[in-house]
Amino acid sequence: MRPKRVKTPSSSDVEMEPVEVFARIKTVSPTEDTCVDFVDERTVDCKPPPDVVSDKGSRATFTKVFNQGAAQSAVYDEICRPMVKRLLKGKSGLLFNYGVTSSGKTYTMTGSPNQPGFLPRAMEMIFSSIDGHQTKEFRVTSDDRNGFKLLSETDMMTHRLEKRNELVHSRIASRGSTNTVPNYNIDEHYMESLSEGFQYAVFMTYCDIYNESLDDPERGVYGHNITVKEVRSLEDALREYERGLKQRRMAETSLNRTSSRSHAIMSLHVVRIPYDRNTGDVFEDQVEDVTSFASSLHLVDLAGSERQSRTNAAGDRLREAGNINNSLMTLRRCIDILRQNQRTGARGNVPYRSSKITHMFRNFFEILGGVKLVICLNPAASEFNENLDVLNFAEAAQAIVCKREIKEDIEEDFTAREEQAAMARAKKNKRRTIFQPWMVNEEALAHGPPLPCVELFSCDDAEMIPQLIDIIRQRVERREIIGEETDRLTTTFRKKLNHFERENVDALGKLRILEPQVEKIEGENDRLLKDNRRLEKKNRALMEAQRVYELDKKEAEAELQAMNNKLENESKSKRQIEAAAKRKMEDERRKLNMETSRKLREAEENSKNRLNLNEAKMDQLRNILSKNSPRTPVSRVNREVERVERTPVSSARTRNLRKRSVSETRMKEEAGITPGMSVKTPSASNIKENRPPRPGRSQERGRGPTTDHLAHKRRSKSADKWLAHTPKETIDPGTVLQPKVIAKKNVHIPSVGDLKTVDQYLLTHQELGTGNQVKTTLVKGEVYGTRTGGTQVRFTGKEKLTSGTSSEFRRK
Ligand SMILES: Nc1ncnc2c1ncn2[C@@H]1O[C@H](COP(=O)(O)OP(=O)(O)OP(=O)(O)O)[C@@H](O)[C@H]1O
Fold first, then answer.
1. Which CATH fold would you assign to the domain 677-694+715-811?
2. ipTM rounded to 2 decimals
3. Which CATH number describes the domain made up of 11-405?
């Protein structure tokens, strides 16, 4: 994942290139107060919000400014897509996302499944572009020291075996874990047309700034314990990335962080190796170290840049914030010094080593170039000061110019190399006749026709001897041909034998190398099998336990069901009992109501009868009064009495009031009190039942003049002065019991003057009862002077006497 340290190029090999800075304004609610304004495609304004009194404000110009609502694809196309294109052409790049917490750095870098950011898009672009042009798996591998190497067929096989082993291990370890890959919805299918003749291997690393880093004198800085993993497909890459993110989230959760507090570095490495299109594989003479064919794209999601004072951090969190700030400060210092050096030509020491992040990417500023910075701005008004700070940093970064290495294009000698390889292959094939099939020239090995039957009849047989000589010569020639063919076959055979012996030795050598590995793998395999058996046993035990638990669960469920049924039945019967009780209560209530209304009707009947009786009596009394006092307006009294008596018995209170008003009028009439006199009348009930008035009643109701204030005027009984009011026709009761009062004055018709001289009042009233009975009613009252100078009588008691002959009483 780290940039390699390459030999510093001479000035003719480099060109200068500025750091490109882009700004992206986070999308916020339109109702929110903001402090960042999009001016045009290159300019942004940061102005103080209305509630902040500040003259600071700033306007900055960048390579491009993305306003709120900018689509993820548009931002990718402008910033990251050219970098991926360069990566596929063998050039490295470095992209930083800088901004305060929650300004959209991670949103821009990763995004979400529905709004994918740089990373998923970059991965998609790489894999769709190299489709069909990938090297064999494990053909290229990381040397674990920031470089890459090419493996031979045999090593590739061994490596594959090792990796498979690792894979089995990791699968066993991660058994049961759910490492699902989010389904990024990438709206565009990115595809870059690449030059012919290369095969590609893709690697990736994910780390954060907390990892250790080491300085390698040969190849530069690289992280310790960072796994460089070959990824073969988009899904593979996303899975790896998700694993890294998950680890980061777990770390953050365990530290109880709410925002990213580490610098996340995601690196994509592409190794492009020329290959021979005739064989479909890499060139045989390809050097093992293929680091120079690799290019990297580093996407760095920096932690929030806010100041410590804003984070309210304390303790460990403060130290952590300090570390984050230190690394960002070092980045700023390096950029400031670089800018200073470039401006003045000075050679100030750039403190790359002061933080891991600058140490890691130093080469990009010094040699490789291709640096881009995306500043994320949260336009919320509360972020005004932080945004100013971010803009200052971005402007400083924009002012620096990086050297960029002009890489020799390996495409140039590609065809020539292919031709050379073809020639070498042909030569090799020619030389290697031993690989040709075993060819035996049967004709050459034939002995020729059998010797003819020759018979010599004399030693100078001129006919036969020449024939024989000819045959023998042919035979010699034949023998020579056979000898040559035999020699050829012997030589070929010996060569083949030698070759196979050599191969055998080679194979034995390799076997000796492989044997321990195979043994190791077999051992590992045995161990895994044992593990597997142990786990299977455990699994069986667990399954058995699960079965038992299932049975228990079923029993418990059945029990629960039974209990539920019982409970339901009980509540059903309870509901029935309740309903029955309710019905019974209703019946009882109805009966009671009927009984009450019956009694009420009876009582009403009774009281009606009594009223009728009283009316008759009242008629008699009226007759008496009309006889005695011609001046008394009996007709008015009668009307009053009739009115009151006709009043329905709807309200006891109204009835009482009316009764009281009637009796008051009557008493006044009887007492001869003129309208100018004020008389306080006791309530009818008080008179009838001789009950004292209820305390505080008059105050409560606030009605009529109160007499309580007169109570203190009352004198002792012995000092009472009585006014005895006896109408003319009152007969002397004689021996009948009489009230014990000494009347100051006896009058038939009392006047105001009479009342003023006394403090007690007694009215003797008589009426005829049934037969010859005379009913005498004694009405007592207290006389008070009123505030206004009048006099009032308050009736306090009533006594009734019925007199008649003894025979009448006997009859009764
Ligand atoms: N341009 C945008 N459009 C819509 N939503 C955005 C945008 N930028 C950020 N967001 C939303 O704002 C929230 C915070 O964004 P994000 O996590 O990317 O901030 P951050 O700068 O990475 O914060 P931290 O430093 O804590 O990691 C997220 O819910 C994200 O979806």
1. Immunoglobulin-like (2.60.40)
2. 0.96
3. 3.40.850.10
